[in-house]
Write a structure and sequence with these properties.
heterodimer; A: 413 residues; alpha/beta; 8-stranded mixed β-sheet; 43% helix; B: 364 residues; 12-stranded mixed β-sheet; two-stranded antiparallel sheet; 11 helices; 16 strands
């Protein structure tokens, strides 16, 4: 694993100063040029052979998995999506105008759970008209500098406004140097990280804490259960189920051509097939122990059964109670009498995305929004969020610009 | 109750008590197989669990082959070979329904096991000390197996107990008064309680500017680890505080490892080593001869290589009335020939443990 360079605080401070000056030089530049630069950089980043070679070891993902997820991260930095986002949040015609408002500096502290979180962080910061500091997570100190290299080649003036850095969490001197002057700090991480940084950040804090996702399968979709199971298995397996968009539970409507327990079997089979082409990465003993114990517990729950295989573990439970799993491609399947009952089964503030198959989103969307859900999408697309995804129910640019507005929910079809 | 159940448990209790008087330890494997047959006959959920694996007393010939149940099973079903004399519940931050229950048909065996191990590992010099209990008294927590054990220790192995945890948590004034009184009389004390209560006692000492030099032979027994602590307290810091604030040296500070689901406990080796000429041996958790622990690979449940980390699986003969083999959520490794070290928990495991006794009391 390549060890990231950890710079002295003074050097970090100078680099942020340089980025702020570079940002001042771009104040007259229309957003359309920024969008073009970001899209070109993403395309270039996608082909970074050095990144592809080094990332699996750093991120503890298999080579096939990083090969699968890097294109997804690059595709999200899409020129059309960025244009629509800027037009929507900054007003019609905004892509032809220069930044008239926005924070001087947006600092992002990234989590380690999934790689390439730096790409949307940098893109959104640039589209907010800010200089951007990205502090990478421990398990992916590579994607951010790789994107910076790509941006330097595609758009050196924009690249000069971006600083990528790494330091171990809990370093007060570097946190002060990197985050101290940022009017907006976006933190993604666990509860301990959020609590610690929440006390030290002086600017406006945008916190993204731990969340998981769920899926629901309608009885009509069960006519092609194999295809739905395959799509869900990919959603579960991508990023080895570490992300907030990874489904931990699947609710299956009863009364369809396939009973929920049988669907659980199909899903286990599909997970096995997906694991053939997307093998899991190495897991620590604590994670492996958790997966073993979750399966062992199922044997003692009335109406529950665990189906463990090479591709992960599916636990079928008669009871509807939502409980996040331990990850490592472990998912619970529950029966659902009617899709309309789904929102009542989910806890508030814990679910980021709901994947649906054969269930219309409209009747559920208001109630899911009230629970804190930010995204509804078809199964099979849960790990392909567009840049415009209102993560944490925040408007992607509005939250950086200080005009967040009402909680948002995006419905993708 | 299965026929002969009381006799089996009484026989084992007698064997344990005989060991404390210099007799041989219970011969583990014959006892393990006899107890497995007893549990298979008298514990229906466990019998079904074993039967699903094709394991019966006729087919199990080695103690390592006796099937292990996960601690989660204690949250879901009652695993006992007969009507319980006591029901102990795990401490935790989750709802009462999610807490584990250990049904103990005969307390006499638990008592024999607990006292024998405590006397061996904590009182190898046969000291009889006054005890300061930093746990709630039995009337406040009748469902705590730790509290029950502390009460037995107080009755049988000390010169009396001062209970210093009340309905609202640690009664610091009472504890400090007892410490000052003991110091003034040059008396040695046994301080016995949950780690979180010790942390609060240390804070109270510092807050009032109190330090004590307790009499020689004073000792600390703590259990529960870092769970429920209001501030981080490493093991090294705990030992430093014990010396600085109480005058008790580290080699008289013994950490206990126990679980509601077990009737036997492990203890840190420091005093046992010190009184048996092994003062340079590494700290490790030792068990009495009727408790064995295997360190298992999480995926295969096969033993890991010596010194490697895995899931801890305890085989406790004193659990004869329920289930003897328990697969825990604790991660650990073997240390030396006879000890283990606990190094963590399975990822995302439910918070539980003795130190949460205080959390439950004071609502913090």
């Amino acid at each position: 694993v390549t060890r990231p360079l950890i710079e002295p605080p003074a050097v970090l401070r100078e680099r942020v100063d340089d980025a702020l000056r570079a940002r001042d030089r771009l104040r007259a530049r229309p957003f359309g040029e920024t969008i073009a630069g970001l899209a070109a950089a993403a395309a270039r980043w996608r082909g970074d052979a050095a990144l592809a070679a080094a990332l699996p070891a750093a991120a503890r993902l298999s080579r096939a998995m990083t090969a699968a997820v890097l294109p997804l991260a690059a595709e999200a930095i899409d020129a059309d999506v960025m244009t629509a986002l800027v037009e929507r949040e900054r007003g019609s015609g905004a892509t032809g105008r220069a930044a008239r408002e926005g924070p001087a500096l947006v600092a992002h502290v990234l989590a380690s759970n999934v790689p390439a979180l730096a790409l949307p962080a940098i893109a959104l910061g640039c589209l907010a008209g800010a200089a951007v500091l990205v502090k990478s997570g421990r398990d992916d100190p590579l994607s951010a500098p790789a994107f910076h290299r790509a941006l330097s080649a595609a758009d050196p003036e924009l690249a000069a406004t971006v600083v990528t850095a790494y330091w171990p969490g809990g370093d007060p001197d570097r946190e002060e140097a990197g985050l101290g002057r940022a009017p907006v700090v976006v933190v993604t991480g666990g509860d301990a990280t959020l609590a610690a940084l929440g006390e030290r950040v002086r600017g406006r804090l945008v916190a993204h804490g731990p969340r998981v996702s769920v899926a629901a399968v309608g009885r009509t979709a069960l006519a092609d259960a194999a295809a739905v199971a395959e799509a869900l298995a990919v959603d579960v397996a991508l990023h080895d189920q570490r992300g907030c968009l990874s489904p931990h539970a699947v609710y299956v409507e009863t009364g369809g051509p396939l009973a929920p327990p049988a669907f659980a079997e199909r899903l286990a089979t599909a997970l096995g097939a997906v694991a053939q082409r997307l093998p899991p990465g190495p897991a620590g003993v604590a994670e492996r122990a958790a997966a073993r114990l979750l399966a062992a517990e199922a044997e003692w729950i009335p109406g529950a059964a665990a189906i463990a295989g090479d591709g992960g573990t599916v636990v079928y439970e008669d009871g509807p109670t939502f409980r996040p799993t331990c990850g490592l491609r472990t998912v619970r399947v529950h029966p659902l009498a009617d899709a309309d009952a789904l929102p009542a089964l989910l806890p508030a503030g814990a679910v980021e995305c709901v994947g649906l198959a054969g269930i219309p989103a409209a009747p559920l969307s208001q109630r899911l929004r009230a629970l804190g859900v930010s995204r509804i999408c078809p199964v099979g697309r849960m790990q392909r969020p567009p840049l415009s995804w209102p993560r944490g129910q925040h408007a992607p640019l509005g939250v950086l610009l200080g005009r967040d507005g009402a909680p948002q929910l995006a419905v993708e079809t | 109750m299965a026929p002969g159940a009381e006799g089996l448990e009484a026989d084992l209790a007698a064997a344990i008590t005989a060991w404390t008087r210099g007799g041989p330890p219970p011969d583990f494997e014959p006892w393990a197989l006899r107890i497995f047959a007893h549990q298979f006959a008298g514990n229906a959920p466990y019998r079904a669990f074993c039967a699903r694996r094709g394991l019966t007393p006729a087919r199990v010939v080695r103690w390592e082959e006796v099937p292990a149940v996960p601690t989660a099973a204690f949250r879901r079903v009652d695993l006992a070979c007969g009507p319980p004399e006591a029901v102990f519940r795990t401490s935790g931050t989750t709802s009462a329904a999610a807490r584990g229950r250990h049904l103990v048909p005969h307390l006499a065996l638990y008592r024999a096991s607990a006292l024998a191990a405590f006397a061996h590992f904590v009182l190898p010099d046969a000291s009889r000390l006054r005890c300061l209990a930093l746990v709630p008294p039995p009337d406040l927590r009748p469902d705590s197996s730790l509290v029950r054990m502390c009460a037995w220790v107080g009755e049988a192995l000390t010169r009396g107990v001062e209970w210093c945890v009340g309905a609202h948590g640690l009664d610091a004034e009472r504890a400090l008064t007892c410490l000052a009184d003991a110091e003034a009389r040059g008396e040695a004390l046994l301080l016995l309680g949950v780690t979180a209560a010790f942390a609060q006692l240390f804070d109270a000492c510092r807050g009032r500017g109190c330090t004590f030099r307790l009499g020689p032979g004073s000792r600390v027994v703590d259990t529960g680890g870092e769970k429920g602590l209001r501030r981080p307290l490493s093991r090294a810091a705990f030992l430093r505080e014990s010396w600085t604030l109480l005058g008790i040296p580290g080699y008289y500070c013994v950490n206990e490892y126990g679980m509601t689901e077990l009737c036997s406990q492990r203890y840190e080796s420091v005093l046992d080593d010190r009184f048996h000429g092994r003062s340079l041996a590494p700290r490790r958790l030792l068990a009495p001869p009727w408790l064995r622990t295997r360190v298992l690979d999480p995926e295969t449940l096969a033993p890991v290589a010596a010194g490697a980390t895995g899931l801890l699986c305890h085989h406790d003969l004193a659990n004869a009335g329920s289930v003897s083999v328990v697969l825990t959520e604790d991660l650990g490794r073997a240390v030396g020939e006879d000890g283990i070290e606990v190094v963590g928990r399975a990822a995302g495991a439910v918070a539980r443990g003795c130190s949460l006794l205080l959390t439950a009391l004071d609502g913090s």
